[in-house]
Every structure is written in C-alpha cells, then in structure tokens.
Amino acid sequence: MMSAPTLLRAVARGVRSRAIATLTAIAAVLIGAFVVGPPALAARGPGGGFADEHHLTEAVRRAFVEYWRSGDRDFSPDLDRVVDYWFRFHVAKGVIAGILLIVLIALGALLWRAFVNAGGIGAARQVLLASAGVLVTMLALLSLAAVMANIQGAVAPFTSLMPMLTGGATDGPLADTLAQVRQQLSDSRSAGGRTPPAVGVMINDFTRYHVVMAVLAAMVVVVLIGTSVALWWRRFVRTTSSDRRTRRVWGSFGAFSVLLVLVVIVVGVANATTAADPAPALLALFNGGW
20 to 30 A Cα–Cα from 263, which one of 161, 192, 215, 254? Predict the structure, then answer.
C-alpha cells in the first residue's frame, strides 16, 4: 500500500502531466491561429481584406503612388483602407501572440518544475523534459518578440507597410514615385530643405515606429531584470549546493536573463538612435536597406 506522501506525489505528477498536455494542445492551436488567423480577422473590418500577400502588395503600391501624386498630407481613400487593414492585422496578430506568450510561460514553468523534481524517473524522460523546456522557452521568446513587433506595427502601420514598396521589382509609376521620394528625403536633410506634406507624414510615422520599440524594449528590460533578481538569482542563492540539478536550472536562467537583457538593450538603443534622426534611416529603407 502507498504511503500518504508517495500517493500525494503521484497525484501531483498526474495533475501536472494533464496540465502540460492541455497547455501543449492550446499552444499548438494558438500557433496555427497566429499563422492563418490574422488576415481573416483583419478582413472583417471596414473595407474588407485582400486575397493574399501579392494582392495586398499591389494595393499598397497603387495607393501609395496615388497618395504621393495628390500632394496632400491626409491619406487617400485607398491608402487609408490599406493602412486600416494593416492596423487590424497587427492587432489580431499581437493579441494571439500575447495569449500564446502567457500559455508558453505557464507551460515552461510546469516543464522546468517537472525537470527539477525528476529525480525518481529515468534518464530518457529527464532529457525529454529538459528538451521540451528549452523548446518552450525559445518559443516564448519568439512570442515576446512577436508581441513587441506587432504592437509596433499597430501603432505605426503606415511605416510597417513601407517594405512592400521597395521589395521585388519596381517599375513604371511606382519607380518614378520612389525616385521622387528618395530625392525629397535627400533634400529634406539639407539645410533649409522644404519637406512636402507626404514626406513629413512618413518621417513622423517612421519616428513613432522606432520610439514605440525603444519604449517597449525599456519595459522588457525592467521586467527581465526584476524577474532575474526576484526569481532566478534569489532561488539560485537559496538552493543548497547539494541540490545540483536545481542550482543548474536557476543559474542557467539567471545567466540567460542577463544575456537577454543585453540584447534587448541593444535593440532599444538602436531604435532610440533611429528615432532621434529618422531621415537617413527612412532614406535607407527606400533604397532597399530595411
């Protein structure tokens, strides 16, 4: 007959296994939704959507040429429709990525806890738990990056569309328009250069695009530092040297958090630098250097 502690541990393992299986299934569904869901969700708004990426790109190019030729600051109706669609697309993608991030954090916590407490199981299962934990951790980081990128895209959808203007072959009216944009951006950098309304809109939106990422990066750095100190390093210090498995896990997470903080700081500084002087970077974008 099982003792009470043994029975409790068995029940806990069973509950944890069911929770891991459930969260894994939810994560798989969300990953699929992240890939295929946003275009359909974005198309439900005013103006509808686009059949595929090719049709979207063609619509962006036509609308941009029309907008540039109008000489107005306000978007033309066609460009306004495309920008609104792209805003909804990023919102849908960001929400799905955010939910996925929460699920992956919960799943990763369960997997790493199971690995730390896996002293009584076989080596093969321990390797499986560790591998699953690493995979889920990497997916969580990708989800975090997706959340940040889609917040950035939702705040400045016009800038987010700009790579579609320069990617691939450009000829005819689009090529002429892009040449004029490059010339105007070059002139705007010279002293006393006049900035056309459309160029001013592009520069402002491009600045906002990078300011948002700089702010998001700063927020993530604060959260990572707080998490690293409150969870990983504190637990590492409190764990006795005899519990080598637990110390390795917490120590690895602490070191990885430090590395991740440095990467995010670099991203934040790069975006803040670009926001401080956006015209050269915007010109580089229209020269194909996105």
Answer: 161
